[in-house]
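From the methods appendix. Each design record in this collection lists the tokenized structure first, followed by the designed amino acid sequence. Records were kept in a plain field format so they could be parsed without special tools. The example shown here is representative of the layout used throughout.

RECORD:
FOLD TOKENS (78 positions):
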């Protein structure tokens, strides 16, 4: 069983990775997930519209790290 605390730390760790290299990621406009820049469609909602601005990626990563929500940081892809 994973305690909620380490779950949040894991999210924060992923977010830090994304914030360090925002050009490698983009934000899905359909579900606000952060996905790898090379994917053509969102693995979460199958959307194909993305916000690729590094500033948007960083902002979204901070948001995802700070609260639990249904959007995913999709790194099953790495
Ligand atoms: Zn999506």
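DESIGN:
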């Amino acid at each position: 069983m994973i305690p909620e605390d380490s779950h949040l730390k894991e999210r924060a760790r992923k977010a830090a990775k994304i914030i360090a290299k925002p050009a490698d990621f983009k934000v899905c406009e359909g579900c606000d997930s952060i996905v790898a820049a090379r994917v053509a469609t969102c693995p979460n909602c199958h959307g194909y519209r993305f916000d690729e601005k590094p500033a948007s990626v960083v902002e979204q990563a901070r948001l995802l790290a700070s609260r639990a929500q249904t959007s995913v940081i999709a790194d099953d892809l790495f």
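APPENDIX NOTE: The mean pLDDT is 84.
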